Structures are given as structure tokens and as C-alpha cells.
Amino acid sequence: MDQLPSHEPDAAPAPAAQGPFPSPGTDREWWRHAVVYQIYPRSFADSDGDGIGDLPGILSRVPYLADLGVDAVWLSPFYPSALADGGYDVDDHRNVDPRLGTLDDVDALVAALGEHGIRLVIDIVPNHSSNRHVWFQEALASPPGSAARDRYIFRDGKGVDGAEPPADWASGFGGLMWERVPDGQWYLHCHAAEQPDLNWDNPEVHDDFVSTLRFWADRGVAGFRIDVAHLLAKDLSDPLPSDAEMARMPPGVHPLIDRDEVHEIYARWRTVFDEYDPPLTAVGEAWVEPERRSRYASRTGLGQAFNFDLLTANWSAPEFREVIDRNLRQAAETGSSSTWVLSNHDVVRHATRYGLPQGTPGCSQEGKEWLRTHGASPVLDRELGVRRARAATLLLLALPGSTYLYQGEELGLHEVPDLPEDARQDPTYLRTGGADPGRDGCRVPLPWTASGPAFGFSDGGAHLPQPSWFGASSVESQEGDDDSTLALYRRALSTRRNVRAGEDLRWRAARDEVLHIERAGGWHCLTTFEATAELPPGRVLLSSAPLAHEERMVPPNTTVWTLERP
Ligand code: GLC
């Protein structure tokens, strides 16, 4: 078959100066339309051969990030930590884990990224500290009722000698949410026991986090990703409900999740953010009902909140359309902008989700369990998964709003579902005795080279073992290949930056299982799910899969961008 390449080299985008967006240095609202690349530092690049990725490793890859064309980098935690939860157990929020580097390395990274107009966003983990944090150590050494204990959530137990926990609440990470300390009291931890929850009714906790935000902003950090932003405010007044009662409580009433008071915290943070020029940005990780998400994203709050709706949606045109419409409407109502995301360090990589048999919910426990048992079998259609992932990415990048990419997705990288049991690190795996397969499969260190030690990730090993098939997905294997996923991402990001588009989006009529949108300036984006469709008008800018010349038809599981203007 006569095939067009998946791009037309002569359909070059307009020069940067004519793009719709001001240059990175001058745009105060850059976050509205930014492409943000998430780095999970321990698994990105290792400079010293200890098998753990580090900040100098990231620094050495700044040219790669610049070539990719991202607007910002979001770093998952790099703070001192025992790694009980991959760094989300923070010992000291205003320092760097010595295995990952130094504060000088952060400064160097801000500067190096800045030379390419790339901003740095960091993760703030305000719901809990680690149990090694100086505050928690002080709390353990202090008596019940002391000021040191009041920075956390300590309670007496129930039953004879208080030997039973204050409530039977089950942690999503396995086990109970309460842990007993030697003097008999119990403390609350929504996640692992090494992550005691902080008491946000204590003004000292507020003040300390404001100092942390300023500390990083003063070093040149542009914004923050707020970990479990919906959990900070809690109502632990007696009597505590049972786990079963709590499960029936609606948002706003539930003692732990998505309480209205949480927005008072973010209103105060907003005043701090707005003291900076340009204002600091923030995006909340808030797993809440879609209609309650807007409050986190409001102008008087964090400004943006992750929309995980596409991440949990099936590969289906009606589902995608419903999610897109709802999120654009909500963003317009709050004055925020949408945050499109398909993968992150907590979920099964989307190239793999899209290769599961139809109807297997890849993000669910069921999906992960399926992968664990079938991951290596041919039933997982890896090729189809990548094909759909490429199509989905082009669709996301054509939408108004910002897009969050997770390291490795630009390589079409798959989940590693079959890690050896003794290599797994995730507390969700360890605390459930393996019942939950955990999140390690999307955190395996990146392959930079086709062969060699740790596929170029490190001169030593990799802290999670890489499978032999990683080499074929490596950066080296894809460099120079115009049809590679890496080439597609690079081209898509530069085209998006330069095509003239407004904030609006118009749906064009399309048959079932096809989505066709048009942006101002004649930019068309057409995605076929399980169907074929005619090419949209205009010249082809980019296609996620090869197109047949003679037919002007778009095959299934493909996204095409065209430009309909002279
Ligand atoms: C967030 C993080 C996740 C972490 C949890 C507890 O959901 O994304 O990785 O385990 O918070 O901090």
C-alpha cells in the first residue's frame, strides 16, 4: 500500500514568533497551556552508579527535555526520605536526599532548565511527614497531650488499656490507619505507618508549610504539585464513625476526605503565591467527585487541579467526548484551565492499559491483577496499546488547557507487570501481602540506550530491574527514526506550540467512534477509535499512524492533525 509517512516534512509549522502563546519568559499565565513533563527522580537518570536516579542525572538530560519541547518539568519528591513510599515519606521538606544531590544541584537545575525556557514545578506533600521527621521524633519523645504531639493526630485507644485503635479505619495502602506508639497512644496515618498525618488544625503546621513554599519559590521554583490535596482538613471530633459508617458519608461530611475547610488552607497559600511575579502556580492532586474539583482549581485556591477522568476512561469516543466537554465547561466556570493526563507514577502506563482486552479497567485493582497474571502473555496487545496511546496523546495535545506527560510515555513505554516479588518496593504491595500488585511497574528506570548497563540509566544497576525488552524502547533505539513515538512527541509538541489556536474548541459532526474537533485558525484534530473516517480538510500536519495516500481515509485508532488555511 502506498503510504504517507506519519508526518509531512514540508508541512512545517509557522515560526515560533507567530505562535499563539507569548514566549515562556513573559507569559504570566504560562500554566494554562503548558506541557508539563513529570520526572520520578529515582528512575530517570543516575549520575553516580548507585542505581538510584539523581539530580545531576536530570541535569545531564536537560538537552533531551529541551529537544522534547516541554514547557515545565514537575519533579516528584527528591527530599531526604527512607523511601517507605518512594519519597512521599518526607523527612525534611527543605532539603535534598544526599543520594539524589544537594540544594546546589536544585539551583543548577533551575538555571539549566531556565536557559531553555523550561520551568520547574516541585511536589509538596502537606498531608503527612515521614516518621523520621524531626517533628515526629519530638512527638514520640514527648508525653500525650504535649505541643509536640499536637502537630500530628494522636488519640488514646479504646478497650482495656486502650489496646484497640481509636477507630477501625482501613488504609487504602493496606492495614489500619492507626499505629500504636510505646506509651500506648495511637497516631493516624492515611497511607503507610511511616507517613503520620499532620494536624492542620495546628497553626504551626500552616506556618511551616508557608515557609516551605517560600523557601523553594525563593530558589526559583515556579510552582507546586500538591500531594493528596483533598485530605489535609479533618474532623476527628468524638465519637469517631466506624469504617462502614464513614464509607457512606458524602463529601463535605466525611471526616477525612474533601472537607470544605481545606479551601481555607489554599486561600492562604494563594496570597503567598500571588506575592511572586509571575505568581506561583499550583496543581492539586485531588481524587474527588468531578463537580467538587473546581473548588481546588479556583482562582482563590490552587488555580489548577488534576483531571484524572481520561486516565480512568476506556478507549471510547463517547467517554472521551463526555470527559472533554465536562472539563472544559468546569474550567470555564472557575477561570482555570484543564489538566489532561493519561499516565503518572501511580497508575498502569496507558500504552499497556490500551492493550488490555476490551473492558478490562486498566487503572483498577482488577486491571493490575490481570496484568500480573497475564502480563507476559500474547493476550496483551502491546502494539495496539502503543498505537492507541499515540492517538490519545495527539488528541490531548490538541485540546485547550495544559497536558501532563509522565516520563517514558514519549517512548511508548509499557508497564513492567512481572517484576520479581522480592524486587517490589511499593508499600501498597508490601502492606497488603501482595494482594495489591502495587505501582512499581510504572516506576522502572528509563532505558536511554539499546544495551549496556541498566540501558544507560546508570553505570551500576537499576533499583527496580529492567526487562530485556526495554532496550528496544530506549531513546537510543528511537533517535533518528522518524516514525518512532519519540519523534512523534517531539513533532507534536513543537507543532502545538506554533499552530495558531485560540482557547475555543468546536466539535465537528463525525460518525460513531470518531471525534473531530476544530480549533480557531483552522486546526483540525480527528481521532478514530474503532472506526475509519475521512481525512479532515486542510493539509496534514501530523498523524499518529501512517495514512493511505490514495484513500484519504484515516484508519482505526489514529489521530490526525490538519491545518485548513493558506
Ligand atoms: C499521592 C502520590 C502517591 C503517594 C500518596 C501518598 O497519591 O501520588 O505516590 O503514595 O500520595 O503521599
UniProtKB/TrEMBL annotation:
Residues 38-443 form the Glycosyl hydrolase family 13 catalytic domain. Residues 1-24 are annotated as: Disordered. Residues 1-10 have a biased composition (Basic and acidic residues). Pfam families: Alpha-amylase. SMART domains: Aamy (SM00642). Residues 11-20 have a biased composition (Low complexity). Keywords: Hydrolase. InterPro entries: GH, GH13_cat_dom, O16G_dom_2. GO terms for molecular function: hydrolase activity. PANTHER family: ALPHA-AMYLASE FAMILY MEMBER, NEUTRAL AND BASIC AMINO ACID TRANSPORT PROTEIN RBAT. Belongs to the glycosyl hydrolase 13 family. This is Glycoside hydrolase family 13 protein. The lineage of its organism: Bacteria, Bacillati, Actinomycetota, Actinomycetes, Micrococcales.
